[in-house]
Amino acid sequence: QVLLVESGGGLVQAGDSLRLSCVASGGTFSSYAVGWFRRPPGRDQEFVAAIDWSGSSTHYAEHLKGRITVSRDNAKNTGYLQMSSLKTEDTAEYYCTAGVLTNPVDSDYDLPWNYDYHGQGTQVTVSS
Asked: Which region, left, alpha or beta, applies to residue 121 given φ > 0 means left and ψ of -120 to 50 means alpha?
């Protein structure tokens, strides 16, 4: 059983930065890709960013490139999502996911059902 716990969310002002963390327990974190998704209020879940098991390959939602950075520290079993220049439209519940992706193509990282484990989420609210 793998447990993912997100933290770092909160209420911030537009223009601020925030770093979300996703700590994994159980399983072999270093073998998992980590994906970040979000669900804005009243909208469907959407892909934010992902990083492969080694940290050498990263993937971003096109419209968020330049404002977000995904990273990981396998020694700490932790994934990170750094967000900067936050906008009110970034308000959402943010979720991390993890799992083994076998021979993935880029688009595989965008799909939440490709990940075996899902966290409970952390709320990010950006005020104007």
From this structure: left
Strands (E) located in the chain: 3-7, 10-13, 18-25, 33-39, 46-51, 58-60, 68-73, 78-83, 92-99, 117-118, 122-127
pLDDT in tens, 108-128: 999 999 999 999 999 999 999
What percentage of residues in the chain have a pLDDT greater than 70? Answer: 100
Q: How far is residue 72's CA from residue 67's CA, in Å, rounded to a whole number?
A: 17
The neighbour count for residue 28, using CB atoms within 10 Å, is 12
Dihedral angle computed from the Cα positions of residues 60, 109, 34 and 61, in that order, rounded to the nearest 10 degrees = 20
Q: Which residues pair with 82 in a beta bridge?
A: 19, 69
**Contact between residue 35 and residue 98 where contact means Cβ atoms under 8 Å apart:** yes
